[in-house]
């Protein structure tokens, strides 16, 4: 959970509550922000930083108040919400019930529609897939989805860890594209960092939504490597609806952008040179259902 609502319906984000906590201000009474759920919440602030410039060792988060529970069907009751989504799935050719009680998510038609750049699956199947991916993002790992939902792409099954990538696994997504012989669909979850217009040429009418990158530990002094994620689209207004700081799901046929190496002098030691290597993951959505807020 990244937000909660107060007594009068005001939405409170984690960053704003952390600032109020740091300033010694009184925090509001908080409740779950999912429609139909009024479970009381407690804000748990980030632990104190060892140094002012260092990130907090444990980020701030919300937890249920003692004795509280989410309402049935609440999006934060992940098992119950997942069961409700699967039970209500309208297309048995997309979400197929198996004899062992699991369901199978059949992705071939959606994959083909993405490759064509259009088709009924983009409107009929993508919205439900986006909801399922949001559940996976809120869980923080693959366990729940892997136990209840089998992924199938044509004749082959796909493991969840090869279909959904958190920020700390962007490098694995990039490596998968490097090794792939054909386009494969998968999802990333990320936090919006910026929006920027395209440069001159073929990208001049494109706006890019950029997410916070993954920083790779190289073990080499003065060498830094990053994996950046960007989504490009001609509809700038749509991309700007995903505000900076928003956690989003991005699904589709990804491609590798060009890796870029840049050097600069060390800020305090002129004998040293800092090398930054940036690897890029890029997505060009053909449907607005390919992005969703967590």
Describe what this molecule looks like in 3D:
- There is one protein chain.
- With 294 residues, this protein is of the alpha+beta class.
- Helices cover 23% and strands 34% of the residues.
- It has 8 helices and 17 strands.
- Strands 10, 11, 12, 13, 14, 15, 16 and 17 form an 8-stranded mixed sheet that branches.
- The model is unreliable at 51-56 (pLDDT under 50).
Q: Report the principal-axis shape.
A: globular
Query: If you compute it from the alpha carbons, what radius of gyration comes out, rounded to the nearest whole angstrom?
Result: 21 Å
**Helix content class:** 10-25%
Please report the number of helical segments: 8
Terminal CA distance reads 8 Å
Low-confidence stretches: 51-56
- N-to-C series of helices and strands: EEHEEEHEEHHHHEEEHEEEHEEEE
Mean pLDDT comes to 89
Decide which structural class fits the backbone. alpha+beta
Strand content: 25-35%
Number of separate strands: 17
Main beta sheet strand tally, sense and closure? 8 strands, mixed
State the gist of this model.
This protein is an alpha+beta fold. The protein has helices spanning 14-22, 78-88, 108-116, 120-124, 126-139, 143-148, 170-179, 236-240, and strands at residues 3-5, 11-13, 30-31, 40-44, 61-64, 95-97, 103-106, 149-153, 156-158, 164-165, 185-197, 207-216, 223-233, 247-253, 255-265, 273-283, 291-293.
């Amino acid at each position: 959970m990244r937000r909660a609502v107060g007594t009068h319906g005001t939405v409170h984000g984690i960053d704003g509550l952390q600032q109020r906590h740091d300033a010694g201000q009184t925090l509001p009474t908080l409740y779950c922000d999912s429609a139909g759920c009024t479970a009381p919440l407690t804000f748990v602030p980030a632990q104190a930083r060892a140094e002012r410039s260092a990130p907090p060792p444990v980020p701030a988060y919300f937890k249920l108040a003692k004795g509280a529970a989410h309402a049935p069907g609440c999006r934060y009751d992940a098992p119950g919400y997942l069961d409700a989504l699967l039970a209500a799935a309208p297309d048995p050719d997309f979400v197929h019930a198996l004899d062992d009680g699991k369901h199978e998510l059949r992705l071939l038609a959606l994959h083909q529609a993405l490759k064509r750049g259009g088709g009924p699956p983009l409107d009929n199947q993508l919205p439900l897939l986006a909801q399922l991916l949001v559940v996976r993002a809120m869980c923080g790992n693959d366990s729940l989805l892997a136990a209840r939902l089998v992924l199938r792409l044509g004749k082959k099954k796909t493991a969840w860890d090869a279909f959904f990538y958190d920020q700390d696994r962007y490098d694995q997504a990039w490596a998968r594209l490097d090794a792939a012989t054909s386009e494969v669909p998968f999802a990333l979850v990320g936090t919006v960092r910026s929006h920027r217009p395209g440069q001159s040429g073929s990208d001049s009418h494109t706006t890019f939504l950029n997410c916070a990158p993954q920083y790779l530990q190289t073990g080499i002094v003065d060498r830094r490597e990053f994996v950046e994620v960007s989504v490009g689209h001609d509809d700038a207004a749509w991309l700007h609806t995903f505000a900076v700081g928003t956690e989003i799901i991005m699904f589709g046929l990804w491609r590798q952008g060009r890796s870029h190496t840049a050097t600069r002098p060390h800020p305090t030691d002129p004998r040293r040179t800092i090398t930054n290597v940036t690897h890029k993951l890029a997505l060009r959505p053909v449907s607005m259902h390919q992005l969703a807020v967590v």
